[in-house]
Amino acid sequence: MPELTSAPLMLALVALAAYLLGSIPFGIVMAKLFGLGDLRAIGSGNIGATNVLRTGNKLAAFLTLILDAGKGGIAVLAARALVGEDAAQLAGFTAFLGHCFPIFLGFKGGKGVATWLGTLLALFWPLGLAACATWLAAAALMRISSLAALLAAVLSPLWAYMLGAPSLLVLAVALAALILYRHKANISRILAGEEPRIGKK
């Protein structure tokens, strides 16, 4: 963890602002803009880019991916610029929580993978690139987005250590644990051989 140097009130404000930013459900916004229907009634019911892709609309899925990643990245960069490194890590964590448990959707959100990747890229880009490369390699080999995300998340603390970012270890472990938790249903389907593959409508 980074040294805590910011005022508690400032950290609380950062956490709230980042959570609200993370709570914006861009998948649902894109689905409405592109006339794709209720995203929560499609495929896995998830509000993220992978489920948007299952509608067959690649542009909507791409925009959802960029926007979901961007809210994590923007939260981190803004907190770092305005407050400090301790606030940056807190902002990344609470933006991730906002995506997974958004106040705007009754605390029923997505799995957080894109927001997690955007957060890591903004916090320490080599770690973010390592996580992205792990996801891309696993997704290309196995064609299962959730399994690729799980592998990338589990390996992220190792990448943080190997890349010389020990201050990110606690956050990396916490985010990986939450990603595993949010993917409980996916893990069950993977074990049963029933998890949808990338590109399946």
Describe the structure.
The chain has 201 residues and is mainly alpha-helical. 69% of the residues lie in helices and 0% in strands. The chain has helices at residues 8-22, 26-33, 49-53, 58-82, 85-100, 113-123, 125-142, 145-162, 169-182, 184-192. Helix 8 (145-162) packs antiparallel against helix 9. It starts with 7 loop residues before the first helix and ends in a 9-residue tail after the last helix.
Distance between the termini: 41 Å
Which whole number gives the mean pLDDT?
A: 90
Helicity level, as a percent range?
55-70%
Alpha-beta content class: mainly alpha
Rounded to the nearest angstrom, the radius of gyration is 16 Å
Q: What percent of residues are in strands?
A: under 5%
What's the order of the H and E elements? Answer: HHHHHHHHHH
Topology:
Blueprint: H1 8-22, H2 26-33, H3 49-53, H4 58-82, H5 85-100, H6 113-123, H7 125-142, H8 145-162, H9 169-182, H10 184-192
Short synopsis of the structure:
This protein has 201 residues and is an all-alpha fold.
Which characteristics define this entry?
201 residues; single chain; mainly alpha
